[in-house]
Amino acid sequence: MTNPVQNLESANDAQPANLVRERRQVTAPTAKNNKAEQVYSGQAGPWEPYQPVTLEMIRTKFAGLVQAGRQCEIRALLRHYGAERLPDVPTIYFDELLYAAEKLG
Fold first, then answer.
1. Where are the compositionally biased (Polar residues) regions (predicted)?
2. At a CB cut-off of 8 Å and minimum separation 6, what does 105 contact?
3. pLDDT (tens digit, 9 = 90+) per residue, 50-95?
4. Which of 3, 5, 79, 97 has its CB surrounded by the most CB atoms within 10 Å?
């Protein structure tokens, strides 16, 4: 029976002698990381509290889209949520509607 320590030593001896292990250098924070820290370093702390989406927020976004000539896309969004007018959209869909409007432009 062989000694487990001898097996380990023989395994270590089998590795090439020129094997060099490289150390990874820790890089300095990038400008992007510094910029992100600056954005979130306000008085409210690192995270802003969640603000529910309101009808006025969606109206403001839609007004910009109307000025950009995106009325057809706005109507399609409203129909997708089962409404003909913005006040007819159920409030539970306000987050999704604002996100979809932001993707339009």
1. 1-15
2. 64, 65, 68, 70
3. 889 999 999 999 999 999 999 999 999 999 999 999 999 999 999 9
4. 97
Contact 70, 76 (CB under 8 A): no
The Cβ of residue 29 has, within 10 Å, a number of other Cβ atoms equal to 9
Q: Where are the alpha helices (DSSP H) in 1-105?
A: 4-13, 31-39, 55-67, 71-80, 94-104
Provide the 10 A C-beta neighbour count for residue 93: 17
Cα of first residue to Cα of last residue in the chain, in angstroms, is 75
- Nearest-10 crossing angle of helices 71-80, 55-67: 150
Position of tokens 């089962």? 82
Task: Kindly report the pTM of this predicted structure.
Answer: 0.54
Q: What share of the chain is helix, strand, coil (3-state, %, to 5)?
A: 55, 0, 45
Token code pair at residue 68: 């950009």
